Each structure stands twice: as C-alpha cells, then as structure tokens.
C-alpha cells in the first residue's frame, strides 16, 4: 500500500475494501456492465408519445478510472434480433463516446408498438459488454389515433354524485396482450371485471385542461377473461369540475364541466388481429355511492347506494342510462409519462383518544399528505365524519384554524377536510376517498350514534408522486437528521404531479416555493419527469407577451398577483437545475423560447435594469428586504440563465445579447445597492448580503469584503437567521461558499427561535410556513418553501455539486466542509452515472474522508485549507486529514 502525502497534513490511502470487492465481482460478471436502462427517464415505460425518446444507462464497474469509451445502441421491434445485435430498426453504430444519454434518431416510431433496446459499451480498456434488453412502448403518438368518443352523463357541473360508466364485451380468441388508454377531464378509476386497474391514484395529473389533457396507459392483459368481460369507469371532479369554493376561484376555471373521459381498450390476439373496445354509445351510466367529491376538501360516501358488481359482466344495468357525447376538453391529448401518484406508505394510527361516546381522535404521529382509510361495521345509515387536521386544541379536539383560512364555503354541506362515510349495514365496511387528499396528522371521527372505535380502524396513507429516492443524508446531529427527514416529508407532501405549496389550505402550484425547493428535491428524488411535465404546464399558461401566473396550473387566478420574477423564475431556474442534475438538454430546448419571452417582458417593463415586480422575501423573521432588491436579483439570474442556455443551444447572437443585458442589470444593481467602501448591500440585511453573493451580483474584488459583512450581520443576529423565503435560499450557501462554513452550520443547527431546529424541538415532522410556532397567520404545518436547507446539507457539508461545464455529475464539484461541532456527516446522491458519496468522520484532530465517484465520471476535489484541487477519476478514495 502506498501512502502519498498530498500536503503536510493530508495522507491519501487507496481503499483496500474496494479492491477486494472488484476481484470478487469479476468472477461472476464482466468488469463493466451497462445497467439501469431507462427510456424517457422511466424503466420500461408503456404508452409514450415522445417522437424521439431518450435512452439512458449506468455502468457497473468498480475499477478505479472506470469509463465508457464507446457505445452502440440498438432499437427494434424484434427482441431476438435486438438481442443478437442484428436486424434492429435503429442502430446508433459504434460511436467513440462516453455519452450515457442518447436520443432516438431512427425512422418514425409506430403507435401502439413495443420497441426493444439494448446498449453495448466499451470500457476503459476497449472491452465490450452488452446490457440486458429493455423496452419501451409507444402510445397514441398522434391524437388522431384515438378511436373512442368523449362521453359523460347528462348532468351538469353542480350535480354532486360521481358517475359510473360501464359496458360489457366478449373476447373471442386467445389474448396476446391488451392495453387500456384512458384520457379524462377530471379524475378516473378504471375497473376490469370487478378489479381496479393499476395502483395509481388521482390520474390523470392536473393540467390546464383546456390546453392539454393527459392520458394514461395500462397493461391489462392479465385482467381480461376469455369470453365475457366488463369494463367500468368511475369519474371524479379533481381540478376539472371544482365545486368547493375558496379564494382562488377554482370553481370559476374556464374549462369547468361535468367530468368526461375517452377510452380505447386495445386487445391484440395471439393470431395478430386487433380488437378495440372504446368509449361511445354502447356504454351505460349511473350514479355511484360517492355522493360528493372535491380534490380540495373531502369525499362523501353513502354505502347504501352501492351497486355490488357494477363493474362485472353479470351485473344487470337495465336501469342505467345512456351516455352522451362530449367535446374533447382540449385539442391536445398527450401521454402522462411520469411517476404516478400512489398510496406510498401506510401509517397505522399511533393512538386513539376517546373524547366522548361519539367523538374519537386518531393520531398518526406525523404530518402527511394523503388520506385515511377507515374500516367499521354497524347498522345501515350510521354516519361517520372524519375531520382531518394538523394540530389539536388544548382540549384534544382537532384544530383546523391554521389551514381553513382561505376556504369560502357556501353553506355547511362541504366541511373542510372532512370525509363523510355512511354505512350500508353489511358487516365490516371500508372507506377511503377516491378523488381527494388532505394534509393532516390527526383525524377526529364523530359517529352518529354512540359506539366504541378501535385504534386499528384507521390507517393513514401518505400519498405523493412516487418518485424514486436518489439521495441520502445522515450525520451525528440528530436534529439535523430530523430536519432532513422533515424536509423530504414536506417535499413529497407537495408533489402531486406538480409541486404545491401545502397539501391542505391551498394545494396550489406556487411557483416561488417550487424553484426554491427544486435543488432539495433533485438531490433526494428522481424528479425529472414531474418537472418536465410542470414546465409543459408553464408553456400552457404563458401569455404571448411572456407573463406567467404565480400558481401553475391555474383556473385563471395568479396573473395579477404574486407573479414577478422572484416567483415565476421557475421558467428559467427549474430547467437549469434539471439540466445540472441530469445533463439532459431537452428541458432547456423545450422552454428556451418561453424563458426568452419571460425575460424580454421584464426588460420591457424595466428598462433601467431594476424591477419592483414581485412579492419579495416572503414570511421573513423580522427584516424585509426591499422588493426591488430581490426581484432585480431574480431578473439578473433569469437573464444569466437565458444567456447560458442560448450558448448551449448554439445561439451565439442571443447569448451575446443576454450576457450584455445581465451585465447591465448587475451594474444598475450595484450602482444602486453596493457600498464599495463598507462592502455592504442595501441596509445590510441577511437576505440582501447573501442574495447578492449567492446569485453572483457581487464584483469579484468585493466578494470577501461582502462575505465578511454578512458574517458580522449573522453574528450580530446571534447566529440565527433573519430571512424569509428568498433569503432561505441564499443565507447558508452564501456563508459556506465564501469561507464561513462554520458559521453557516452554527445557523443551520440552531435549535432556538428562529430556526429549523426550533420547529423540530417542538415536535415538527414536516417543515412549517412560519418561524414562530405560535404565529397567527401563514401557519401551515407542511410547507416546503423553507426547504433549501435539505440541498445545503448535500452542497456544503457533503460538498456534492454538479459542475455546470459537465452537468449531470459528469464531473462532480466536491468541496466538503468539516464543520466545527459536527463529527460525522455523509451524503450520497444517485446521479446519471451512479452513486456519488461523500462521508467524513472526525476523530480527535483527524478527519477521515471517504468519497466514491461513479464510473465514467470524475470529480474536482477541493479540501478545506488546501489551495489546490485534486482531479479524481472514478473510484473510492479515502483521505486522512490531520
Ligand atoms: C402560499 C405560499 C406562496 C405565497 C405567495 C401563500 O399563500 O402558501 O407558499 O408562495 O402565498 O404569496
């Protein structure tokens, strides 16, 4: 073993364990293997509409310096030909390239077709190895391929009960495969022969329905029967027919109508023939036991109205009505190619408290977004009211006053976050809302007659977009670990096919909250599919002049309030962050024109280079930075991103124009706010100083001076934050990126007011909307907006950052900070090339630092106190720093 001193105090020790692992693995498998094949960032997806799908893979290769020197990708409809490496429809040819993201460039894909693909790679020594076969399947590809008609019942928007639809059909031959394609205005559940199809929840995702409606594809081969079959559809309102009333006028959405759907069930028989069962006049409809459903408030279910077997072939639908044709909600019906919403985690009630003979309060022990499932038995007509809340009054009853503030009910028939369940009187009956979710920890159940309820009658389900976990953080500081967990819970509680602010009071796609939390999300979760979809929502909502609404999607609210650059910079910041994390330029290309239109509009409004358009540093601790300051910072940030994207997309004239504009804004900003003598900005608030540093407005020759001013400000604030939403993005980063990591950690690890730790000390399991736990307004208990701290752990303590010049962690910028007061920290992130990990332990005066760089990527390591950087190739390294 060689020991190579890097500096007097640093000893590099090659890792022995790794060498052992490598030799053990080499007996079983080739030293380099392409794995983790994905198409459109999904594993073996079906029902894709992308004309040029993207392929990605990773390498398993534990050798030091592992890399890919060439690849050859094959795509074709004949799996055997693809496996043999011959006869494929498209072959990239062997290309001397280290790319692990390749876009299809063969001839036009056919609809309803399964394509197989594989990739052969050549390793660092030029040795080839071949992946297993993966597949993707196309869907409609073109709206003209739909055969079904859009249908509904004859009721109007005000009718409350949700409709059922059904029809029967016969299969005549042996079935090879079957796919159901379902598009809906509203929400739907699909059933075949009595069984719900798939485990998705709340399909399809919320979009601006009159511009773009999503459809979902299911493989239903195993649910079809030989002979008689029945297909059933249950439609919910979702955001399409919003009946509840709240300040954002959801109920006035221009697209609002009675829910409708279009369906093609495509059966391919063993003999190759295809039969379609489609929505149309052959269908029948009836009202379901869901007597009320609102995505925003709750669901009411009357089991006495159940029609057992409604979705089976033997059911008699003679009393059911005929359906009617409806116009398609929008001209664009496209595939929902993303991770679905699911009931991801079951959470048994931790306790039940009996308040009196008819009132019981369940406690899940933690705050979530989702639903509760309730199972009981009793006489027909017994009614249960399940009122969901995040906190309790001192008397033990649930308190909704922190979350119902913006609800504007008309009458009493739609109580907030309160399900109604009426028993049918047929033994044990189970209820779980189909078309609603809530934010809650407690459920107060009120029964219509005295009875005993048990703890196990209620289970909570944490629902969210089921994005794979791609990051881990753990440390010796238990409060830090809990803040990280709470950040993840709030991030996921606010991910339902679009990012939201909170899962209870609003469920709004607040733009500002989402761009601030996007790095936190991307470090820990595989969010690209959700963000790509949400950026398409942005394109649908953008005015021709570039203006975006502050909440996206929207039924119309938000074009007039809250939509300055500090919020709607989502249009630049989110594509840029997705690019940094995935190295995928598609989201940049798709949104480039929209970004440009957005910044050009600000330029039109603000010829001086400064803008006052925006909300400013929302929910600050005590000091509020002027709006012109923060909005101009975001204007500068947007223009800088557009300049970089223009250069990347090969538009040098645009790039030059936006570089010049960015310089103009920066000069105007510094002329107005920078005090060159003192190294201060504005009136020297934490947000002012840190935003100028973090977003790159400080002239190079003033950086250390401004950082010192910031440090003095924070020390004067007793090492506590004094920021709002925009400042939470910058305060910790500006400190740790400018030589003040110990101070940043001191602020981040506070457990007294105001701090993240203060919430945790007071029992928080999610992040809050306000710093004082007893604030009287803006006090949702599950807001992601203050969640940047989750990303900061990775960036500053783990030191893992994407390199903008080699995005997707092709090169990792590694700069860990072994901060005072913390003896152990580790972070890992599964990037496009594999798992990057960074872990350190302090023992006495020494720090042992261990880092793994995945195959086909590199790192630039900067260790504390060392002026030089180290270039690392793939492998695991250990540094002993004394
Ligand atoms: C939301 C915030 C949002 C803000 C904008 C609030 O009601 O909950 O998270 O960003 O409004 O003003």
In short:
This protein is of the alpha+beta class and 882 residues long. It is 23% helix and 29% strand. A hairpin with a 5-residue loop joins strand 8 (114-122) and strand 9.
Fraction in beta strands? 25-35%
Task: Write down how many β-strands occur, each being a DSSP E stretch of 2 or more residues.
Answer: 46
Please tell me what the overall shape is. Answer: globular
Distance between the termini: 19 Å
Bound molecules: beta-D-glucopyranose
Structure classification: alpha+beta
Q: How many helices?
A: 16
Main sheet: strands, sense, barrel: 10 strands, mixed
Return Rg in Å. Answer: 28 Å
The averaged pLDDT comes out at 95
Helix content: 10-25%
Which residues sit in consecutive blocks of at least 5 with pLDDT less than 50?
1-26
Word description of this protein:
- The protein has 16 helices and 46 strands.
- By secondary structure, it is of the alpha+beta class.
- The two termini are 19 Å apart.
- The protein is globular, with a radius of gyration of 28 Å.
- Beta-D-glucopyranose binds at residues 501-502, 506, 510, 512-513, 562, 615, 618, 783, 785.
Which characteristics define this entry?
binds beta-D-glucopyranose, disordered N terminus, Bac_rhamnosid6H, 16 helices, 882 residues, hydrolase, seven-stranded antiparallel sheet, alpha+beta
């Amino acid at each position: 073993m060689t020991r190579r001193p890097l500096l007097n105090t640093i000893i590099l020790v090659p890792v022995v364990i790794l060498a052992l692992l490598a030799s053990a693995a080499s007996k079983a498998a080739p030293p380099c293997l392409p794995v983790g094949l994905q198409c459109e960032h999904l594993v073996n997806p079906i029902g894709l509409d992308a004309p040029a799908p993207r392929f990605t893979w990773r390498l398993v290769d534990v050798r030091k310096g592992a890399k890919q020197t060439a690849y050859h990708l094959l795509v074709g409809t004949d799996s055997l030909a693809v496996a043999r490496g011959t006869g494929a429809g498209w072959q990239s040819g062997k290309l001397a390239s280290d790319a692990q993201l390749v876009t299809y460039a063969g001839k036009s894909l056919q609809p309803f077709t399964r394509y197989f693909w594989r990739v052969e790679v050549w390793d660092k020594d030029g040795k080839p190895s071949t992946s297993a076969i993966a597949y993707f399947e196309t869907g409609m590809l073109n709206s003209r391929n739909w055969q079904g008609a859009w249908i509904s019942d004859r009721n109007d928007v005000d009718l409350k009960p949700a409709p059922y639809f059904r029809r029967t059909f016969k299969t005549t031959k042996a079935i090879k495969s079957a796919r159901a394609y379902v598009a809906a205005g509203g929400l739907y559940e699909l059933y075949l022969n009595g069984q719900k199809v798939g485990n998705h929840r709340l399909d399809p995702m919320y979009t601006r329905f009159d511009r773009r409606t999503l459809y979902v594809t299911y493989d239903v081969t195993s649910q079809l029967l030989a002979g008689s079959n029945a297909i059933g559809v249950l439609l919910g309102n979702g955001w399409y027919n919003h009946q509840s009333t709240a300040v954002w006028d959801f109920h006035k959405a221009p697209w609002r109508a009675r829910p409708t759907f279009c369906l093609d069930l495509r059966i391919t028989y063993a003999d190759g023939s295809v039969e379609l069962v489609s929505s149309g006049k052959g269908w029948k409809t009836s009202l379901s036991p869901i007597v009320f459903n609102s995505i925003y408030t709750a669901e009411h279910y009357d089991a006495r109205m159940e029609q057992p077997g409604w979705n089976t072939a033997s059911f008699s639908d003679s009393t059911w009505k005929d359906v009617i044709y409806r116009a398609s909600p929008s001209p664009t019906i496209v595939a929902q190619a993303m991770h679905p919403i699911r009931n991801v985690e079951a959470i048994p009630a931790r306790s039940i408290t009996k308040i009196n003979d008819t009132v019981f309060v369940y406690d899940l022990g933690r705050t979530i977004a989702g639903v509760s499932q309730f199972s009981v038995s009793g006489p027909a007509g017994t009614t249960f009211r399940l009122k969901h809340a995040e906190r309790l009054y001192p008397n033990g009853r649930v308190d909704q006053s922190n979350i119902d503030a913006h609800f504007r009910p008309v009458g009493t028939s739609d109580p907030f976050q309160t399900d109604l369940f009426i028993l049918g009187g047929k033994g044990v009956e189970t209820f779980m809302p189909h078309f609603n979710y809530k934010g809650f920890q407690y459920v107060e159940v009120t029964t219509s007659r005295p009875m005993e309820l048990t703890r196990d009658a209620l289970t909570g389900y944490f629902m969210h977009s089921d994005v794979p976990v791609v990051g881990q953080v753990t440390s010796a500081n238990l409060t830090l670990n809990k803040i990280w967990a709470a950040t993840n819970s709030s991030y996921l509680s606010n991910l339902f096919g679009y990012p939201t602010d909170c899962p209870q009071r609003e469920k709004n796609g607040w733009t500002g909250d989402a761009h601030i939390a996007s790095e936190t999300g991307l470090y820990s979760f595989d969010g690209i599919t959700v963000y790509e979809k949400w950026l398409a929502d942005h394109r649908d909502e953008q005015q021709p002049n570039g203006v975006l609404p502050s909440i996206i999607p929207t039924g119309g609210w938000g074009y007039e309030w809250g939509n300055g650059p500090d919020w709607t910079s989502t249009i630049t910041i989110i594509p840029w962050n997705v690019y940094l994390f995935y190295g995928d330029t598609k989201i940049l290309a798709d949104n480039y024109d929209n970004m440009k239109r957005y910044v050009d509009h600000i330029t039109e409004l603000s010829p001086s280079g400064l803008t006052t358009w925006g909300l400013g540093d929302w929910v600050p601790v005590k000091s509020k930075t002027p709006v012109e300051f923060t909005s101009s910072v975001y204007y500068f940030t947007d223009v800088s991103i557009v300049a970089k994207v223009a250069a990347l997309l090969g538009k040098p004239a645009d790039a030059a124009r936006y570089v010049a504009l960015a310089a103009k804004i920066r000069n105007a900003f510094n002329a107005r706010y920078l005090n060159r003598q003192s190294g201060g900005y504005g009136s020297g608030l934490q947000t002012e100083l840190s935003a100028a540093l973090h977003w790159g407005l400080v002239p190079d020759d003033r950086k250390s001076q401004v950082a010192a001013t910031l440090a003095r400000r924070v020390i004067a604030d007793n090492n506590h934050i004094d920021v709002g939403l925009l400042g939470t993005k910058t305060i910790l980063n500006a400190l740790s990126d400018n030589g003040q990591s110990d101070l940043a950690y001191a602020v981040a690890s506070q457990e007294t007011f105001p701090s993240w730790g203060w919430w945790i000390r007071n029992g928080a399991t999610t992040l809050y909307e306000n710093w004082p736990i007893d604030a009287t307004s803006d006090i949702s208990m599950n807001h992601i907006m203050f969640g940047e701290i989750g990303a900061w752990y990775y960036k500053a303590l783990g030191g893992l950052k994407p390199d903008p010049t080699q995005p997707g962690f092709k090169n990792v910028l590694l700069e860990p900070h072994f901060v005072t007061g913390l003896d152990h920290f580790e972070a890992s992130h599964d990037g496009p090339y594999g798992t990057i990990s960074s872990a350190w332990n302090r023992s006495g005066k020494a720090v042992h630092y261990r880092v793994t760089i995945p195959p086909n990527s590199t790192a630039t390591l900067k260790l504390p106190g060392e002026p030089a950087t180290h270039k690392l190739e793939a492998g695991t390294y250990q540094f002993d720093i004394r």
